Every structure is written in structure tokens, then in C-alpha cells.
Amino acid sequence: MDNGATMHLAVSLLPGTADTSPGEEPEFSGLAGLVQRAEAAGIDMVLLVDSAPASSNNAANSTVPFEATTLLAALATVTSRIGLVAAASTVAHQPYNLARRFASLDIISHGRAGWNAVMAQAPREAANFSRPEGFSDTDFRRRSEEYIGIVQGLWQSWDLDALLFDKTRGRFHDPEKMHLLDHKGEFFSVRGPLNVARSPQDKPVLVLSGLTEADFDIAARTADVILLESGSVESAKARFDDLKRRATAAGRDPDAVKVLTNISLTAEDKPAATADRLETQFRAKSCDGFNIRLPQQRSALDDFADRVLPELRQRGLVREGYRGTTLRSHLGLAGGGDQ
Amino acid sequence: MTARMKLGAFLWATGHHIAAWRHPKAYVTAGIDIDHYIQLARTAEAAKFDMIFCEDAAGLREADVGIASQTSRSIGFEPISLLSALAVQTSRIGLVSTASTSYNEPYGLARTFLSLDHLSRGRAGWNLVTSASPIEAANFGSTGLKPHADRYERAREFAEVVTRLWQGKAPGHDGQSFSVHDPLDLPRSPQGAPVMVQAGASDVGRDLAARTADVVFTAAQTFEEAKAFYGDLKGRMAAYGREPDDIKIMPGVSPVVAETEAEAREKHEELQALIPDDVGVALLSSYLSISDLWRYPIDGPLPELPESEGMKSRQALVIEQSRRDGLSIRQLARHFAGARGHWRIVGTPAQVADELQARFEGGAADGFNVMPSYFPGELDAFATLVVPELQRRGLFRRDYEGNTLREHLGLKRPA
Questions:
Q1: B34: which chain A residues are within 8 Å (Cβ-Cβ)?
Q2: CB contact under 8 A, B80 and A101
Q3: What is the ipTM score, two decimals?
Q4: Out of B68, B87, B111, whose CB is closest to A74?
Q5: How far apart are CA B382 and CA B361, in angstroms?
């Protein structure tokens, strides 16, 4: 694994910034074109944010007319290499349903799916999900950790070689290789097993965002990718070192947790200056790469792919094309299957 | 134009026959192969089916892991992700998925189906179920399966909130089971609202359907049962200010079709012979909501059974058939395992078309949900043998009349 030398790149397409004019029928093809463009550029993954209700007056105001997991499924059928990560709320979904949805997405995408769990409560979400009282921050944190544990546990319900497909002997699967979860916790009780087969990349990638420092231990124990807001190089480096230390303390290889810094780019940014900015942060070992937030416009993505990326490639900071077929393999994570 | 029947293509695992996966031509890796489903969807679309229908359960189907391991039903795609993928790989066919009112919240479900509706440009539908399986219940808390009446009360409230959300309204709802305040953050459905499908056949199930459903999927073995159900359900609609034509009743049918009757029978026998006794009895037990059927002599009659909190209507159907035909547990198990309690027709394209025509014209069905025994073979057979026969008789469309699922089904666009 030689990924230490090159940065990982994710692209987030921000809602509310699409090219579509008001009143126009929501278009899948435009979004698909953007993701295909990101794939042609060799980006590790696209993050699909979910525009869950932020306030009571944004009805029909969203320009991403799709819920993120359904959008991911559709995008999976029109792409072949790029990783696809969807945000899905721990308040909006039951853990069994969410684990199932992503396990299924992972099979549909042939091992390119990831779940973005947001560690911060979305405003007003609880009010629409029969939880008018909401959660205290500490309850929400404990609940999130339990939730993540259930989802990751359910993703291990079936061993890799559990399915036999033996028509003659009438053995579809090996019952010894199917595992119950039997989870009984503070917030949830889930028996399992999941009724979706094992992931082609071992398990879907877990991306955590919206973290405060109080979430760092949970993230270091469970996440494959952690997204952090940008700050000074020094503060970013301190957080990066802190997270890697905590991962080591949790018994994990620090390289098994990728820390990406969120960067917002606008049309005004000059390509060389942007490349300099990313290079400085990356060479200072303040992150493993970046999550580039772009407006949902072809021109913004083209600018990044045609002008910034070649600059970074020339400096040897970004790998040329995909080496594997799964998201884990793009990210240099174990279980990628084809590294 | 005379009325045309509606057809659903019920896609399910390796096939609807419990032993389908063991058939030499069955596509055994269906549960992990998206390309297989894309192919099935395209076959159904080319044959002008109104919709693809997906059943669902959030858990294993069989309580016994040994039994489960002999069927192909323990793993498969989660249907909403599956249909979202199919939405952009098809252009006309409707896409209907089952989802439970017991293990979802109305805001999330309404939003997800509306998203599927946008991805498919107005071809989505939701099949409401309350979930009768204790296996599913164990994946959502430790309190066990709720009583039938409570599940339906929750379902009624759930459907009411979803309807308001799809109308673009802020529900401002604080009810017994749910509180939902804001409108959805997605634009209105291209077909007004996704199509609402229901399958419950109990008394409260029928009332809920009469009030809210656009399509009703049922299990009826005989013409008389089907006609009685049809009349009863349509009769309940006036009380809710609805016209009989506002609901399309589509019983499930599991045809085994071949060019000649002898070939069809042979094909059916080949499938029946693949059912292990323990699997058949276990499946029958689940329909009867009892766990110890295996204790009784397999060649003897059904024991007396208490009324269950699970699937009331399915249980009654099984018991009635066992009494009527004097069937042993083994005979009953094979019979129900084959088509899972649904109506089965074994015969030539003309014979199958005759049976469908009789129920359609006899006031027992507006269409049918076709449940192929195994995939892809039996869907192909229906598409290439039965559909042309129905078209020749003027009973089924030769091309889509519109673009949305509501247009296919001839349903009004909701206000």
C-alpha cells in the first residue's frame, strides 16, 4: 500500500446550487453527468448530501429533488468505478433498515457504496420523526455510537463464503456462516441477521462528519473516513494527530482511518493557488486528502478536473486513475478485495 | 374502448415457487445480481406490464435457520434501492415496493417514495403492509409483534400523514403514533402522488384499503372467493366518497405455462418435486401462524387452530382449502409452498388467458399480479406466450397509453 504519497479526493455536490431553472422538472441526467465527469477525473468518491428538512419554509425549494440513498442506487447503474457515499440520518431510519439499504446499495454498485453518518442533529428533524422532544447532545452521541455498532455488526451477518447455491443438494447457504447480532442496548434491540448478502468490499465504507471533539473517540473506533472542517494548518495537524493516536489506542492501524479536510471552492479560485493550498496542507501531514465542496454546476467541476487536478498530478500528489474497483480499494482500506 | 386488464410483474428472489432456485434453469444468484433484475424489468416493460411489484420483509422469512438455508429467501436486495436502480434503467413501467408502517416513520417513507417517483418521472408506488412476522419485530425492539388491530390503527394514521405530505401540505400532525410537522422538502410528484397499494384482506385491512388504496393486491384461490372479495371491497368505497373504479383490484396469480398442456404439467411437477417436506411444512406453519405443525402426522389432517394475531386472512384461506379438499398436511404444504397461497394456473397460453379473462370479465378482478414460478424462464414464458394471447383478445394493451403509473392504471390524478 503506497497511498501515503498521494492524497484522497472526495467531491461533495452542494444542494441548492444546481443549474436547473426554477419550476423545471427535476433532472437525474444532469446529476449523472456530473458524477460521470468526476469518475472520468479519477476522484475517489462523490458525497451525496441529504437535504433533510432544515426549516418549515423550504418545501419544494430544494434543487436536489432526490433523497440521497435512492439517488445513489440510480447513480450506481450509470457509473462503474467512482465511490458513492450517501448521507442518511440516524433519526430518520431504524438501524436495521439503514444497514439493509446500504448493504443493498453496495451490491448494486459492486462494492462502491458508503454511508455518511452525521454526528450532529439536524435542526427540526426530530419534530418530523415523532421525537418532538429531540435528544440531548450526550444522548444523541451515545445513541449514535450504539447505532453505528449495530449497522456495522449487521454488515457482518454473512461470511464471505456463506452462499453455496447448491441446487442438487438443496443447500442455498451454510447456516453456520450466518450470524445473529442479538444486540440489546440502551436505545435499540436488534436480533439480526441482515437479509442482504455480504458486501463485495467486506462492508460499506463509513464516513463520519459533523464531529465535535467529544465524538473523536467514537470516530477513531468506528470510521473509515472522517471529514473535518478546514482550519489553520497547525490546528488541522493537531486534530489529525489526535485522531490517529486515538485510532492506535483503539487497536486500529492509524492508516485504516482516513481524515479528509473539507474545502469549499468557488469559480474565483485560481487553479495554481488552489493546488498550492492543497499541497501545503497535505505535505504538512494535516490530512489524508480533501473533500472538495463544489456548487452543483458543470463549470465548477470542469474547472477542478481540468485545471486543478492536472496540476496536482504533475506534482505527484494524486494517483493516475483507479487501481481497483471498490471504494475501499480507492481509499487504500483493507477489505477492498482487489488491491 | 373496452376495459383492459392491468398486469403487475411480481419480482421475487429466484421465483415464487419455494423450490424455484433449485430448478436447473433458475437464476440462482438473483439476490446478488443487479443485472439480472435490470433484465427482468426490461422484459416486463417490453411486454407492457403496468408495473413491477416487489414484496418485502425486514428480516428472515423462516424462523428455523435450517429451513432458511434450504430456500433462497434469506438474502436479496432491499427493494427501494433496487427499484431506484431500475428507475433509471427503464422508461415506462411502474415501480412498486412494499414498505412497512410498523418499522418506518411516515415522513421518511413519504420522502423516499417521492424521490423514487422523481427518479422514475412518475412511476412509483408504495405497497402498504403492517408486517405480521415476529422475526421482523425482533429487528426493531424487544417488545414483540403488536396486536393486529393496533398495527392497523398505526397504519391508518401513517397513511393519512403520508397522503398529506404527498399533497405538499405541512401535516402539523401530533397523533397517537406519530408527530410530523413540516412539509416535504421535495417538489410535488410528477403523477400527483405515488400510487398507494395495499394487500391486507382482513376486515380492518379492507376498510383501510377502501379509504386510501389505489390498487389492492389479494390472494384468492377460487373465482367465488375472488368475486366476493371484489364486491365487498368496491362496496365499502362509497362510504369514503370514492367510486368503485378508483381502486384496481389485482389478485396474485402464479401461472405455469407452456405450448402444450402436457408440457405445462410436466414443468409444474418438476418444480413440486423439488420441495423438501420440511420446507413445505415450515412455510405452511408460517401461513397458519403456528410453530409446531411438524409435530402432527404429515399425512394426516390439519389440527384445530386458534385465530392468530398474524396474517388473519391468509390463515383462514389455508384452513378453508384444507377442509374443502380434504387435504393432508403434506398435500396442503406442497400446494401452498408452490404458489405461496396464491392462485395457480397450469396450462397452455389459451387456457391461462381463458382463466384470466373469466375472472376479469366476471367481476372478480381488474387485473392480475403475475407471480412467475422461477426467473427468468417463467416471466419470459408469460411475456412471450400469454401476453400476445391477451392482446389478440383485446384484453391487454399493445402499447403504453401514458407515461406515469397512474396513467397506466387509469387512476385519477389526486388533488
A1: 76-77, 107-108
A2: yes
A3: 0.94
A4: B87
A5: 20
